[in-house]
Amino acid sequence: MSLEEKTIKKDIVYKGRILNVEVHDVELPDGTMSKREILKHNGAVAILALTSKKEVLLVEQYRKAAERVTLEIPAGKLDLGENPLDCAVRELKEETGYQVSKEHFSKIYDTHVAVGYSSELISIYFVDNIDSNILGNLKLDEDEFLNVKRYSLDEVYDMLDKNILTDSKTIIALEWLRRRS
């Protein structure tokens, strides 16, 4: 049996800078009708960056949706049509000041953030041996404010184990690193 849901009608109920909200009338596999509310997003990248001193770079920022300051690996949204690897190079530079050429990046995973209602796909990359003594100027978006932090592997694993880090892309990347070590 096919599990595909066929879209019969689609309404865009909100067009935003980062996402759009769509309501789809769908025909289910058994022929009945239902509605699906979907957040459409261009996608994003995230970068697990490890310095030559084995420090993990995290960014601290206030997240309005969670109403709290979070610690996350550097990340950012894809521009329309942008290559994810090019975006990873750009976002690492913008959010941490580190300029690293793309041949030093390796892909860890692609992950759907909330596959039940969002199209957002985040590509997670890894880069290591960043010179920890070099930190350039940040080039943040006009409405973006963050602090760059460095943590030892023991510190980030402790934060994972104590559930201090709650951002899913960060958890995925750090658990990948812990398993790899």
What tags apply to this protein structure?
10 strands
Structural class category: alpha+beta
**How many β-strand runs?**
10
Q: Compute the number of helices.
A: 3
The termini sit apart by 43 Å
Strand residue percentage: 35-45%
From the structure provided, what is the oligomeric state, counting identical versus distinct chains? single chain
Structure description:
With 181 residues, the protein is of the alpha+beta class. The protein contains 3 helices and 10 strands. It has a 4-stranded mixed sheet with strand order 7-4-9-8. Strands 1-2-3 form a 3-stranded antiparallel sheet, with no helix packed on it. A 3-stranded antiparallel sheet has the order 6-5-10. Strand 2 and strand 3 form a beta hairpin. Helix 2 crosses helix 3. The protein is elongated. The relative contact order is 0.20.
